[in-house]
Amino acid sequence: MNPILEKVTVSSNSSFALKEEILPHIKIGWHFHPEYELTLFTESVGKRFVGDHTDSFGPGDLLLIGPHLPHYMRNDEIYYRNDSDLRIRAIVVHFTEDFIGGQFFDIPEMGMVKKLLNNSLRGIHIYGETQQVVAKKMEELLTVEGYERLICLLDILQLIAHSSEQRMLSSIGYENSFSLNDADRINSVFEYVLQHFTEDISLAEVAAHVHMNASAFCKFFKSRTGKTFTYILNEIRIGHACRLFIEQDISVSEVCYACGYNSLSYFNRKFKLITKYSPMDYRRRFYHEPNAAALTLG
């Protein structure tokens, strides 16, 4: 298992870290770091967890994650098969608050960017036209160096800061209570659930998987993620249901059973609780408002 604290390396000829990642699948688990992280996925599909936020992600996903905010991304299971020819591609930027000088973001001209960085402590998802413009700028980051690269990053932050096409992810009351010793156990829980959420798995079964009794596991999981295990399991399943509604022409009952539920009425209740829409209303809303699907879970 990867440690929960990620070490970010900055080269000697740059003030911030930039990398293009092309891999068979995402390898790092639940982690945090003292730097801000701006990530654009151009090829990748899976589930993401940012603080107490849960959702699916895919190509075009653009996130700004603040310092010390735990986050975890895992691809769909097909990416981890030996015969899979899928890959991920992401452009990732890491920078510290003082990467351009200790007081730079405190000057009046950078007020909106300063606010953006403060909001990123909850994680920010950027969408719409802003995402498209920023995505092109991030590709440009890979082709320029020195002063041009620095200005390009500042332009990106300025674009996002002045856009309304952003939403904060983790709840305002979320507090990070992770320690390095929690890393293996939390990663093991998420990996197990993401491999088996379409099956009839129980709380006791998952607790036993990490060698805890059910009561201790419930307290541990809630204190580390801000949500109960059952709620996150439902978020994962409902997120998968949303994708099935979008990608496949199948009935509500077929989606229900494909997501690990064995009761259609229970599925309908949980779907509406998490998305605010009934399954049929969600499907109709998606086909009339294609961009709305990105705003279903939170």
Overview of this protein structure:
- By secondary structure, the chain is α+β, with helices and mostly antiparallel strands.
- It has 2 domains: 17-168, Jelly Rolls, CATH 2.60.120.280; 197-295, Arc Repressor Mutant, subunit A, CATH 1.10.10.
- Helix content is 40%, strand content 16%.
- It contains 10 helices and 9 strands.
- The strands form 2 sheets. The chain has a 6-stranded antiparallel sheet, covered by helices on one side. Strands 4-3-6 form a 3-stranded antiparallel sheet, covered by helices on one side.
- A hairpin with a 2-residue loop joins strand 3 (46-50) and strand 4.
- Helix 7 crosses helix 9.
Features:
single chain; 298 residues; alpha+beta; Jelly Rolls; Arc Repressor Mutant, subunit A; six-stranded antiparallel beta sheet; three-stranded antiparallel beta sheet; 9 strands; globular
Provide a brief overview of the structure.
This protein is α+β, with helices and mostly antiparallel strands and 298 residues long.
